[in-house]
Amino acid sequence: MPNQTPAAMIPVVTPEEMAAIDSAAPEPVEELIERAGSALARAALDMLGGSYGRRVTVLAGKGNNGADGQAAARQLRRRGVRVAIIDAANAAEQLPPAHLTIDAAYGTGLRRPYAPPAPAPLLDHPDRAAPILAADIPSGVNGLTGELVGEPWTANQTVTFGALKPGLILHPGAQHCGQVTVAPIGLDVSTASAHLVTGSDVSDWLPVRPAETHKWQTACWVIAGSPGMSGAAHLAATAAMRSGSGYVRLSTPGLDAGEAMAGRTAPTEPVGHSLPADNWAAAIEADEQARFRAMVVGPGLGRQPSTVHSVRELAAATPLPLVIDGDGLTALGFEAADVLAGRTAPTVLTPHDGEFRVLTGSAPGPDRFAAARSLAAATGVLILLKGPTTVVADPGGAALAIANGDARLATAGTGDVLAGIICGLLSAGMEPMKAAAAAAWLHGQAAASRPSGGMAASDLLLALPLAWEAASQQEASR
Question: Is pTM beyond 0.85 here?
Fold first, then answer.
């Protein structure tokens, strides 16, 4: 699948890729350093609220990161700021008091553990630490993986140059970056194959229903749940209905249509459809599938041998765009690539770390972009790797990162909701990679609109229209 991400999206490049971009720049490195220093100085002045009477401490290393900090120091001095430059390699345990500290000790290439000095006390308020502005990335955060290399400071703001680095958006490093700003310094980052998804991107992608549409033009089929496990099915089906599907059919193998829609939590709008408990894939006729635009299989299905057989049979045979989640991923297991080898319609697998292990035999590892890309290449389908930062990757290596989720999503059933959202967007005609990424963004936005505690997966269902509206408002404000 080709990389179809628009150029306006925020690029994400690895430290190695950025080093190559730096080397290819036509400008001398001294010019790039001055531009980076200017961006840092502007951010520092904004944080200081001006220059008069202000003091800044710059913790500077010997490499380009330190040179960026030194350039910022020169420009701040020209504006009247009193600046102390401290050698990161020989810093005392306590920095001098200041109104602001610039962390320019080490950049994205740091490999050895780094223990910085104690943060500078805030001038006139020594019981508080001065705010911290990080140059490119907080020193001690691995630029590729977000792992902590030592004990980095937690910055209030980070100015990164040219493009985001994975370590700025992957956890735990993301928690040390504060507000992140990308400063364009004239580098050509158009070769980036990874991008960060924002609400503005989602607003561009969301489908608009034509005035003459009818429900069957955006129909999706949810095959989920099992006797005693109807919650996952209800969550996925309702999420699809709230995410672009005009008609949702819900089938729970082993339950007749009425039983599938029974219970206090059963959704009102989806339509129940009976499937047998065993060999249910064989009972789905081709002409029935022709009425639908997308299908989701797996949430709450169970792991009986007959279920495994039917999931594999359906995945290999259905011509519909297909989302496979939950127990559907377990059914594929190590044979996912073989099962999916003959598929021509778009396919999205949605593993969390445990399901990734089921599919590959090992956990994703700290480089989550590489993990998602590797599984996508191995299976030939789209992979949505769930986590604090979700990564969507296609077999060709393009990747989209979604970083607006938080710990509220770490509760049972939220993955079922996400699977339903993807299916709903696919049924509405969205391109598969954009559908998966937009679904993850809407999922995170819905969670962010809820109270910080006490959220359950079903709360997301009522919040989804608000998340959709939030994306639309971003489009209107541009």
Answer: yes
